[in-house]
């Protein structure tokens, strides 16, 4: 899932043609281009974001014990897989904690609903700051970013227009409020391994779709999920496995897919487990919350 030339990567012809086709279709329908920074769309996005903030405050007040806070970001509008990754991750989180606090942002592609706040760099930072303010030591935080990427770059695209990307420094600054708190960070993007060193910390677990010098796969326009999130979170025995077990199984599944489709070089997904996160990283997901902590919706 490599970024276009405008963000520093080589032009991927297949992605370019898919994006061009979507753009032509949008114009053929007579739609006017908009941006995430002005107009009725921004007003609606701001309202949706405030609604998510208010719902989070209310949910936290109702919780008597620890829980999970999930923040999912679909940054790119040229594949359905990115939003679907957020949906898949939310489903996995809610299977562990039905009353999980959830934030979902995206830049929808053609045919997807405009019912989440826009996934701009500013909104991502605002949400992660909110999560940092909400999260308690007994909570676990799950953050997913799904998009096209390149070395030290997570692409942002809205209505087929590229915007300045997010780099590791920016993301690390946005996560500052979560230092010392248990965080699972999922990055599904090409070259996402290039973020590991900058984002690593003793209480963090980081899973990436690819090594720092590799592309990842499954980001075509009509894809249901990226290969990484599909292999990681759509496992039938998800709750009975730990993060490390899930990652081992996902690596094996992705390797088989890539070999069968002659995709080379292999994506080589990466895992980092901080010293203080080893216990829960090796614990079955169903045991993340004690019976007294688990809430019902």
Structural description of this entry:
- With 297 residues, this protein is of the alpha/beta class.
- Helices cover 37% and strands 16% of the residues.
- It contains 9 helices and 9 strands.
- Helix 2 (39-62) packs parallel to helix 4 and helix 4 packs parallel to helix 5.
Task: Describe the structure using short key phrases.
16% strand; 6-stranded mixed beta sheet; globular; 297 residues; alpha/beta; 3-stranded antiparallel beta sheet; 9 helices
Given helix and strand content, the structural type is: alpha/beta
Helix content: 25-40%
Portion in beta strands: 15-25%
Please give the order of strands in the largest beta sheet. Answer: 2-1-3-7-8-9
Mean pLDDT: 89
Radius of gyration: 18 Å
Number of strands: 9
Shape: globular
Write the layout of secondary structure elements.
Blueprint: H1 13-28, H2 39-62, E1 68-74, H3 80-96, E2 101-106, H4 121-134, E3 140-146, E4 149-150, E5 153-158, E6 161-166, H5 168-174, E7 183-188, H6 196-199, E8 204-208, H7 227-233, H8 243-260, E9 270-273, H9 278-281
Parallel strand pairs: 1-2, 1-3, 3-7, 7-8
Antiparallel strand pairs: 4-5, 5-6, 8-9
Helix pairs in contact: 2-4, 4-5, 7-8
């Amino acid at each position: 899932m490599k970024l276009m030339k405008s963000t520093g990567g080589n032009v991927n012809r297949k992605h370019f043609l898919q994006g061009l086709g979507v753009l032509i279709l949008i114009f053929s329908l007579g739609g006017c281009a908009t941006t995430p920074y002005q107009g009725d769309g921004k007003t609606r996005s701001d309202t949706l974001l405030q609604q998510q903030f208010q719902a989070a405050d209310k949910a936290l007040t109702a919780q008597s014990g620890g829980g999970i806070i999930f923040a999912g970001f679909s940054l790119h509008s040229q594949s359905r897989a990115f939003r679907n990754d957020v949906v898949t991750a939310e489903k996995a989180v809610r299977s562990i904690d039905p009353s999980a606090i959830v934030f979902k942002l995206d830049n929808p592609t053609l045919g997807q609903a405009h019912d989440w706040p826009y996934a701009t760099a500013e909104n991502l930072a605002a949400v992660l700051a909110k999560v940092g303010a909400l999260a308690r030591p007994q909570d676990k935080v799950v953050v997913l970013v799904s998009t096209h990427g390149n070395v030290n770059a997570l692409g942002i695209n809205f209505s087929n227009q590229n915007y300045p990307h997010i780099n590791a420094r920016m993301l690390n600054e946005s996560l500052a409020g979560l230092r010392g708190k248990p965080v699972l960070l999922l990055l599904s993007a090409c070259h996402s391994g290039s973020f590991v060193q900058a984002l690593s910390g003793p209480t963090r677990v980081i899973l990436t779709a690819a090594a720092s010098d590799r592309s990842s796969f499954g980001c075509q326009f009509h894809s249901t999920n990226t290969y990484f999130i599909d292999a990681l979170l759509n496992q039938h025995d998800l709750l009975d496995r730990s993060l490390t077990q899930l990652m081992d199984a996902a690596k094996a599944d992705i390797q088989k897919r890539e070999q069968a489709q002659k995709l080379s070089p292999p994506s080589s997904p990466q895992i980092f487990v901080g010293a203080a996160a080893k216990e829960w990283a090796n614990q079955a997901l169903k045991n993340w919350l004690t019976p007294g902590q688990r809430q019902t919706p």
